[in-house]
């Protein structure tokens, strides 16, 4: 499972974990060694004392020569009867606590008889407890020190990474004159990351520049033949033509006008958005809607569709006419193309507009991807490439508008464009 903790926190956790393991093992080792040495030394001392008592004092009929902290017990001497609490202790060294008092007990079996020496070691146990408290305090201090050191080290390690992230986040690195990042960093992992970012960003700049130049050049070169076509259509419209011929000329003229709008749209999208004067608004939503109604109403009626226009509110903002015209025209064209009977409705709202139709509709699962390039619905018709809605989405993103789609209750679709801010 991927660790989603921040890198700085992971460094701190690593420092603390390593310290806990090392200090914990070291502290437990100290405690274990103290116990082992204590048991070994006390066992040797009590064994010697017990040997003197059994071999010398008892054989000579004398009382055991012991200090005030040590008591002697034996199973074969009634005067030194073994207390019940010591009767079942194993042979060798033992330790017992009686309240706040600590006793070391050494048991030895000689010729079937049990002998015990019990020595009070409360003072020694207190000193031993002090030692253990010091070990515990050292362990806690080492963990605290590891946390502080880990925090300082993580700050130091992450400083260049955070700096690089801020530079990438706040600089407009896609500008051609954006400075390289790698020279600001040493030749380490962060420097290599900055160099890799510069390299990738350089290729991205070149790719975007090639796309921009291609779009600009193609759009610019197309304007000349389109002007020729428009001029020719204008001249033909002044000639006495048959109705069928005049209809074809009008169709060519209409297609030429649409292509001119598209060329102008591509030219504007290829420009850098930083110069807002290139995208200044000069037309209202009502003006663009009136143009589109004049263009599409005859085509809707020709196909037998009920084309409705509903003005719910007068929108006072002004927008770039080329971009707004392209968005509305694409949505109306799609509605005409995919609606065989019923209605197409254009609704003007306070903050945008929507286009509804009673056509084949778009399945719910396709709503998210219908704006992707080269994506066409299951009911796709004609020889289109699926770029119309992608262009609409791109224009809306460019202008800060929002576009959404949802299905109507019975049949058909509704595309809604919401303006975020008017210029």
Automatic annotation (TrEMBL):
Pfam families membership: HAMP, HATPase_c, HisKA
A GO cellular component annotation in the UniProt record: plasma membrane
Magnesium in keyword set: no
Gene3D superfamilies: 1.10.287.130, 6.10.340.10, Histidine kinase-like ATPase, C-terminal domain (3.30.565.10)
Domain called Histidine kinase: residue spans: 217-423
SUPFAM superfamilies xref list: ATPase domain of HSP90 chaperone/DNA topoisomerase II/histidine kinase, Homodimeric domain of signal transducing histidine kinase
Coiled coil feature spans: none
Main location: membrane
PROSITE patterns: HAMP, HIS_KIN
Compartment list: Membrane
E.C. designation(s): 2.7.13.3
UniProt GO MF annotations: phosphorelay sensor kinase activity
Swiss-Prot/TrEMBL catalytic activity: ATP + protein L-histidine = ADP + protein N-phospho-L-histidine
PANTHER family (UniProt xref): HISTIDINE KINASE (PTHR45436:SF16), SENSOR HISTIDINE KINASE YKOH (PTHR45436)
The protein's name in its UniProt record: histidine kinase
């Amino acid at each position: 499972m991927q660790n989603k903790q921040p890198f700085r926190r992971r460094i701190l956790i690593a420092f603390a974990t390593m310290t806990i393991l090392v200090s914990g093992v070291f502290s437990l080792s100290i405690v274990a060694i103290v116990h082992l040495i204590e048991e070994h030394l006390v066992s040797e001392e009590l064994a010697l004392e017990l040997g003197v008592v059994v071999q010398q004092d008892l054989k000579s009929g004398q009382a055991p020569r012991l200090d005030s902290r040590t008591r002697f017990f034996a199973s074969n001497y009634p005067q030194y009867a073994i207390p019940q609490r010591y009767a079942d202790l194993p042979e060798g060294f033992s330790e017992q606590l009686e309240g706040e008092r600590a006793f070391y007990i050494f048991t030895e079996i000689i010729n079937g008889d049990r002998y015990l020496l019990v020595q009070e070691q409360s003072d020694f146990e207190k000193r031993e407890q002090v030692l253990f408290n010091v070990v515990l305090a050292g362990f806690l201090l080492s963990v605290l020190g590891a946390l502080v050191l880990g925090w300082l080290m993580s700050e130091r390690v992450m400083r260049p990474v955070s700096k690089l992230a801020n530079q990438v986040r706040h600089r407009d690195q896609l500008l051609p004159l954006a400075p390289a990042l790698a020279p600001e960093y040493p030749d380490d992992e962060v420097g290599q990351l900055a160099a890799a970012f510069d390299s990738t960003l350089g290729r991205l700049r070149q790719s975007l520049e090639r796309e921009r130049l291609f779009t600009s050049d193609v759009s610019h070169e197309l304007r000349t033949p389109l002007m020729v076509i428009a001029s020719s259509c204008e001249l033909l419209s002044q000639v006495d033509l048959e109705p069928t011929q005049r209809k074809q000329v009008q169709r060519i003229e209409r297609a030429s006008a649409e292509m001119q709008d598209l060329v102008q749209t591509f030219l504007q999208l290829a420009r850098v958005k930083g110069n807002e004067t290139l995208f200044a608004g000069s037309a209202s939503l009502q003006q663009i809607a009136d143009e589109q109604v004049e263009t599409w109403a005859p085509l809707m009626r020709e196909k037998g569709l009920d084309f409705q226009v509903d003005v719910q509110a007068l929108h006072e903002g002004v927008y770039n006419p080329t971009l707004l015209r392209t968005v509305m025209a694409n949505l109306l064209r799609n509605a005409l193309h995919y609606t065989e009977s019923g209605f197409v409705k254009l609704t003007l709202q306070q903050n945008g507009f929507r286009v509804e139709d009673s056509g084949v509709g778009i399945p719910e699962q396709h709503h998210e991807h219908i704006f992707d390039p080269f994506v066409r619905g299951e009911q796709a018709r004609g020889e289109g490439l699926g770029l119309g809605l992608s262009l609409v989405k791109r224009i809306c993103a460019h202008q800060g508008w929002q576009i959404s789609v949802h299905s109507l209750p019975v049949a058909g679709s509704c595309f809604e464009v919401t303006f975020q801010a008017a210029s």
